[in-house]
TrEMBL record:
Cotranslationally removes the N-terminal methionine from nascent proteins. The N-terminal methionine is often cleaved when the second residue in the primary sequence is small and uncharged (Met-Ala-, Cys, Gly, Pro, Ser, Thr, or Val). It comes from the Eukaryota. This is Methionine aminopeptidase. Its EC number is 3.4.11.18. The keyword Cytoplasm does not apply. PROSITE patterns: MAP_1 (PS00680). Residues 133-358 form the Peptidase M24 domain. Its cofactor is Co(2+); Zn(2+); Mn(2+); Fe(2+). It catalyses: Release of N-terminal amino acids, preferentially methionine, from peptides and arylamides. A divalent metal cation 2 binds at residues 226, 289, 321, 352. Pfam families: Peptidase_M24 (PF00557). It is an enzyme of class 3 (hydrolase).
Amino acid sequence: MASAASISHASSFLQLSSSFLGDSLSSPTLFIGPPLKNFSPSTLSGKQRHFVQKNLVIISKRISGLEEAMRIKRERELRTTTRFRRRPPLRRGKVSPRLPVPDHIPKPPYLNTTLLPELSSEHQIHDAEGIPHMKAACELAARVLDYAGTLIRPSVTTDEIDKAVHKMIIDAGAYPSPLGYGGFPKSVCTSVNECMCHGIPDSRQLQDGDIINIDVTVFLNGYHGDTSKTFLCGNVDDATKRLVKVTEECLERAISVCKDGANFMNIGKTISEHAENFEYNVVEQFVGHGIGTIFHSEPIILHYRNEKPGCMVEGQTFTIEPILTAGSIEYKTWSDNWTTLTADGSPAAQFEHTILITRTGAEILTKF
């Protein structure tokens, strides 16, 4: 129970506080003006003076911090609205019919249903026999993505890119993994400008200054390889170029902290720190995943700060695929149930690699 003296000290402080704090501690101007200037702690006892001064300092710091946070927020909002060249909102084009795949090409099991498959709880760890198969699938995915990038120019449609990618994959004896996955109608994802991910190729022509993420996954000899990259179309403004560059750097830095025994949470921490240095936001709703003989499995890879437990294991394969935006991380999805855009129309960029965990680090499989 509090002593009479301590109650008296507290009461004195509350009375003094009310003389210059007003009725609320929420206003950022509480410590500006005559009341604070006219107040003198010299009339108080030593304990009272220490109590008042200590608490004034604490409250002042909180208010000063609030003012600083508000100032930074206003500056960021101002920069966000003026930094990027405003582009017309993305509009849906016409989606052409699904392309056929020859009967002799092995197909993944999820084609038996149009329902979205459940995430497998299996962590995919490969032995000496499985690793070469994973490498072959990922190397093909990387070559296809590189080829797709050469097609990008103003006036080209994303549907034309899809057709070219589809042909290259089946000519290699592989199956385009997105085709038919949960009813997805195309062989590749093409996400333009404010589209975060899962864009469906259609008749829309690319415009000068667009950015486009192309996400390629192939199913070769029973193994999936998955990779994506954001490309520039024509004359892209410097601010958007920087968003794309920083997103790629986030992926590279995240891969650099991966190795046998490392915590998965290190990935999100690394990505968030680098993105925040450039005042970008990391999308939380879309994640990386285990990959191998199964398209999507545990572990779920979170790209933002988190405390999700779990450690990486030698021989394990998974994707890291951060999405950064220059504005809101909130999203809206078109009625096709796939195409996902930033809620405020701000540009978004994404990069993805499939990696193999080794004893000393991580090997990027989706390179050639």
